[in-house]
Amino acid sequence: MSEQYSNDFKLNAAMAAIVLSGGVIGYAKSKSMPSLIAGSVFGLLYSTSAYYLSQGNSKVGLGVSVLASSLLGGVMGKKAIATSKPIPIILATGSAFTLLSSGKELYNIHKN
Q1: What is the distance between the alpha carbons of residues 6 and 11, in angstroms, rounded to a whole number?
Q2: Residue 25, pLDDT above cutoff 70
Q3: Cβ-based burial of 2 (10 A; exposed 0-12, middle 13-18, buried ≥19)
Q4: Are 17 and 70 in contact (CB under 8 A)?
Q5: Which of 63, 90, 101, 109 matches a 20 to 30 Å C-alpha distance to 4?
Q6: pTM for the full model?
Q7: Are the C-beta atoms of residues 48 and 95 closer than 8 Å to each other?
Q8: By the 8 A CB rule, do 20 and 34 touch?
Q9: CA-CA distance, 107 to 62, in Å (whole number)?
Q10: How far is residue 52's CA from residue 50's CA, in Å, rounded to a whole number?
C-alpha cells in the first residue's frame, strides 16, 4: 500500500465498519430492513475503496470513496435535517469528511 494513501485507507476502512455495524444495529433494534440494506451496501462500497487503496489502485479506490461518500452524505444529510437525530448527523458528517479527504487526493492525482 502506498504510504501516501494510508490515511484514506484507514478512513474508508473505519467508515465501512461504522456504516455496516450501524445497519446491523438499526436492524437489531427496530427490525429496519432499509438500515440493514443501506449499511451493507455502503459498508461494501467503503470496503471496496479500502481494498483498492491497499492494492495501490488509488484512482479507483478514491473514486469509489467519493461516490460512496456523496451518496451517503446526501441521504443522511437530508435525514439529519428532517429529524435532527444524532446518527444521521454523525453519518453525514463522517461522509462529508471522507468526501473531502478522498476528493482532495483524487483531485491531486488528476491535476498532476
Answers
A1: 9
A2: yes
A3: middle
A4: no
A5: 90
A6: 0.92
A7: no
A8: no
A9: 10
A10: 6
Whose cell is 460512496? That residue is 68
Cell of 82: 428532517
C-beta of residue 61 within 8 angstroms of C-beta of residue 80: no
Instruction: Determine the pLDDT at residue 6.
Output: 87
pLDDT of residue 32: 92
Q: Which three cell numbers stand for residue 31?
A: 427490525
CA dihedral of residues 102, 45, 95, 52 (deg, nearest 10): -20
pLDDT in tens, 35-82: 999 999 999 999 999 999 999 999 999 999 999 999 999 999 999 999
Mutual angle of helices 6-30 and 33-54, in 10-degree steps: 160
| DSSP 8-state code for residue 4 | G
In contact, 70 and 46? CB cutoff 8 Å: no
